Amino acid sequence: MSFTVAIIGRPNVGKSTLFNRLVGRKLALVDDTPGVTRDRRVHPAKLYDLNFDVIDTAGFEDADAASLAGRMRAQTELAMDEADLILFVVDARSGIVPDDRTFADIARRTSKPIVLVANKAEARSAQGGMLEAWELGLGEPIPISAEHGEGMPDLREAIVDALGAERVFADEEEDEEVARAAGEPLVGEDIADPDDESVPEYDATKPLRIAMVGRPNAGKSTLINAFLGEERLLTGPEAGITRDSISVDWDWRGRRIKLFDTAGMRRKSRVQEKLEKLSVANGLRAIRFAEVVVIVLDATIPFEKQDLQIADLIIREGRAPVIAFNKWDLIENRQELLAELREKTERLLPQVRGIQAVTVSAETGKGLDKLMEAIEKTHRVWNRRVSTGKLNRWLEGVLAHHPPPAVAGRRLKVKYITQVKTRPPGFVLSCSRPDAMPQSYIRYLTNGLRDTFDMPGVPIRMVLRAPDNPFASKAKKR
């Protein structure tokens, strides 16, 4: 049976650096600026022979509960409630400050086992801070350097001593049997090639990865909280609250869903600070990892230039896009605006004609089921496969009705078409002189595929290829 460890402490003591060290990947944003982390992040971790879940938290700050810092502190307190063990991190270089003493008292009141971690202990000035750490009354401080990986064996021993060997070294074989009995895939078993073509039928039982993207303050985090039915992610009227790309697990109608919250994406010219650049890069990585990407638009100011650039990025990445017009509860003339939004969607996003667009209100919870149904429908289309026989019968009719134009006095000949991949649907068209084929005719074929085989709202890839010349190899031999 696994256990959960929460990493807490005041801002800028190295909590996220330690989190990245334990999970073995640079998942959490790290910067010299205090208060980079805002939401709590959970991820499987490994420390030598110990396997557990670790929670990265925002820095503890003594602030009003209604302020942003106060809401961040509430998230950290929730993490302590979820944890079996608390790693209380202090900065050995700067020593103990009043906030450390205040938060040590709060951690002690949880009655959870606490391991005192003195980070940045590689510095020459760290010895004084190590001695001061005894004043917190949390036991012997464990000197480590999260950045350089020093002191990890001592941290491992401290965790075992705090929780007990029986709790830490649970029977792994028993966990494996329980997981198999529950029908849940073990680690590694759910990893598959995203372009695997071996199973043409849509599997509605497989986990679904969904990313929420959009401009700052569009309501992405609030929308995820509405799905979960709890204040899992930090929200508020301030723009740009989310910095890290946070993933949370959810269950919808018996199907496992992984939701990714991302930082708001402003225009590139406005992104100047290093921290915001890192946040946007994290969001782009979440888009590439997701299957369906929900473009969250503010219904009061929809289709700004940045919204269209975000949508274009998602389409070029080949993800399955869905539009959510959020803050619908603030709209007065709903029918009039709805007709206008439909017209703009078709006109401004012709490359994914028929894209699913749903009006929602994350604040009131209206439209959430419709949004999830649109997501699943789009995901089905994104995975759709059409047999070669059906494609070529369709192509035969198209060529008879509207053959490709002549280029430089020579007619272009189209041989056959076949689907070579899904996610998104990709087709190969065999024709003479692929370079001479007009883009307008390729768009005509793509739209014909979309209409005939019911593939609305997803990118369609079309690759042109010249047929093999059977005489080319003989010419080479001579």
Please provide a written account of the structure.
The N and C termini lie far apart (70 Å). This protein is elongated. The protein is 36% helix and 20% strand. The protein has 15 helices and 17 strands. Strands 2-3-1-4-5-6 form a six-stranded mixed sheet, with helices on both faces. The chain is an alpha/beta fold and 478 residues long. Strand 10, helix 10 (305-316) and strand 11 form a beta-alpha-beta unit. The protein has helices at 15-23, 68-82, 98-109, 126-133, 152-163, 165-168, 172-181, 220-228, 274-289, 305-316, 334-348, 368-382, 388-401, 439-452, 472-477, and strands spanning 4-8, 41-47, 50-56, 85-91, 114-119, 142-143, 208-213, 246-252, 255-261, 292-298, 320-326, 357-359, 406-407, 410-411, 414-421, 426-431, 461-465. Mean pLDDT is 85; it is low at 173-199.
Strand fraction band? 15-25%
Structural class: alpha/beta
The low-pLDDT segments are 173-199
Average pLDDT works out at 85
What's the overall geometry? Answer: elongated
Q: Please tally the helical runs, counting DSSP H or I stretches of 4 or more residues.
A: 15
Query: Helical residue percent?
Result: 25-40%
Count of beta strands: 17
Q: Rg from C-alpha positions?
A: 27 Å
Major sheet: arrangement of strands: 2-3-1-4-5-6
Q: How far is the first residue's CA from the last residue's CA?
A: 70 Å
What can be said about the biggest beta sheet? 6 strands, mixed
